[in-house]
Task: inverse folding
């Protein structure tokens, strides 16, 4: 059980107002995407949930408990894989556990096997491709003791084919585990394909301007992205985003 | 391996050949410049005369190197963890390298006598600096993305240091160690010039004052061999410890 709630969060850096009375909620076992143009304060939101920044106003609740300014309450996967080059894949995926308790290597190996990375358990990050490294980073966040996962544009550095592969892979793993996820992206299709809900962020100051419920049934496969309903959704979200950019 | 060493080896061999030929053809006296064959003869025949000098120098070098490296690492960690102290001491650290060892050495003898203490101090002085500076650089240039990840994951300051910054600095530390390893032999020989009863430095001084130039060259030869051995040991350690390092295979 893991829920995340941002209530009335405001944050400004000097004169610049980045977030203005932001409200947002992720329910237990829900996959929610935050979709917004670059520089719309998506990263700032994550940094506040992660406890690196203090909010000027408002509360961040994880399982109904305030975590403002508390570091390490969530499991985090950054934009770049951020693997430690001197650690093997296995040693890397247990890193987040290691920071809080004694790691369970057996459990890590099982997770690597399910993620299709078993053969690479003893490889070093530089021996893996970009997509593989992102998989390792995702397994690391799944293994973290914190049950709420925040993904910060994890596929933005990958090419289109690898990206699609990774989305499908992420979905299969996620559908098995069903952790609560907050996913930040600027890719509309990716957001619809993966999420239960898509929140469109307006920029400067950022706020959720529209919420879309995506109720395509799971498990989803890539044919979904070519259906009429999917394209309708995409169009609708695109127009909303267009409006944001024109403002 | 063979192809890589072919070029440097052929250069050395040709220099030796030119040297040998010119000292024979021009009939240069041995006390000015002995031919390589003469030097080799002395190296082989004189082994029992000078071998105790070499072992003494090896012992001095290894102990001085160990102390110097430990001091260097300690300084690096301390200055990294306490930025205020780094600001205050860094210029002093650099200034310590501007004092010529040759000038400092007699002073150290006045203060500490002819025992092993001033000798170890000299080696430490030449050894700690490369290790300290390169390790500080390695610690400071830790990938900010990784630090960011560690903070988000809830790592403490201590965990960030031990799990991230320290291992991150190891490759840099090794480049300092390589320099220190070669400096340590030089430091040992210089410290023996001050006043000692054993060591390559002593053997060298005795040889040059009695115009046994061939023996001076034997001393030079052994200094080079020692440097090479220490350097190779460090490289071998680096290969074992940094087996994760990308780009190692290409080198």
Result:
């Amino acid at each position: 059980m893991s829920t995340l709630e941002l209530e009335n969060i405001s944050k400004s850096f000097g004169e610049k107002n980045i977030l203005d009375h932001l409200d947002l909620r992720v329910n237990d076992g829900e996959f929610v995407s935050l979709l917004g143009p670059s520089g719309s304060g998506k990263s700032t939101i994550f940094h506040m949930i992660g406890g690196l920044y203090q909010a000027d106003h408002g509360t961040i609740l994880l399982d109904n408990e305030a975590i403002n300014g508390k570091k390490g309450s969530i499991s985090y996967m950054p934009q770049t894989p951020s693997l430690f080059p001197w650690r093997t894949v296995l040693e890397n995926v247990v890193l987040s556990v290691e920071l809080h308790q004694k790691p369970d290597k057996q459990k890590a190996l099982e997770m690597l096997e399910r993620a299709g990375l078993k053969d690479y358990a003893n490889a070093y990050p530089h021996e893996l491709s970009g997509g593989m490294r992102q998989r390792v980073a995702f397994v690391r966040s799944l293994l973290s003791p914190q049950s709420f996962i925040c993904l910060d544009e994890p596929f933005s550095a990958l090419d289109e084919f690898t990206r699609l592969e990774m989305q499908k892979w992420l979905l299969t793993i996620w559908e098995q585990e069903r952790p609560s996820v907050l996913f930040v992206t600027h890719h509309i299709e990716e957001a619809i394909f993966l999420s239960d809900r898509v929140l469109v962020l307006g920029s400067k100051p950022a706020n959720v301007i529209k919420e879309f419920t995506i109720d395509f049934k799971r498990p989803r496969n890539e044919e979904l992205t070519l259906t009429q309903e999917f394209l309708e959704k995409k169009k609708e979200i695109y127009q909303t985003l267009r409006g944001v950019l024109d403002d | 391996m063979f192809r890589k060493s072919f070029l440097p080896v052929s250069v050395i061999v040709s220099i030796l050949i030119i040297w040998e030929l010119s000292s024979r053809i021009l009939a240069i006296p041995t006390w000015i410049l002995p031919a390589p064959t003469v030097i080799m003869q002395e190296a082989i025949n004189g082994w029992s005369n000078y071998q105790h000098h070499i072992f003494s120098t090896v012992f001095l070098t290894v102990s001085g190197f160990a102390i110097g490296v430990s001091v260097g690492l300690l300084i690096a960690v301390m200055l990294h963890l306490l930025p205020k102290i780094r600001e205050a001491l860094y210029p002093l650290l650099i200034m310590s390298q501007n004092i010529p060892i040759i000038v400092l050495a007699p002073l150290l003898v006045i203060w500490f006598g002819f025992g092993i203490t001033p000798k170890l101090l000299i080696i430490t002085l030449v050894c700690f600096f490369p290790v300290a500076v390169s390790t500080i650089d390695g610690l400071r240039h830790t990938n900010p993305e990784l630090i960011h990840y560690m903070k988000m994951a809830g790592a403490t300051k201590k965990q960030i240091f031990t799990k991230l910054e320290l291992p991150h600095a190891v490759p840099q530390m090794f480049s300092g160690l390589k320099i220190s390893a070669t400096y340590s032999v030089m430091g040992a020989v210089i410290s023996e010039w001050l006043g000692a009863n054993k060591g390559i430095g002593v053997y060298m001084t005795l040889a040059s004052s009695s115009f046994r130039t061939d023996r001076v060259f034997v001393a030079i030869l052994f200094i080079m061999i020692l440097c090479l051995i220490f350097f190779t040991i460090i490289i071998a350690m680096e290969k074992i410890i940094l087996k994760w390092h990308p780009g190692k295979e290409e080198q």
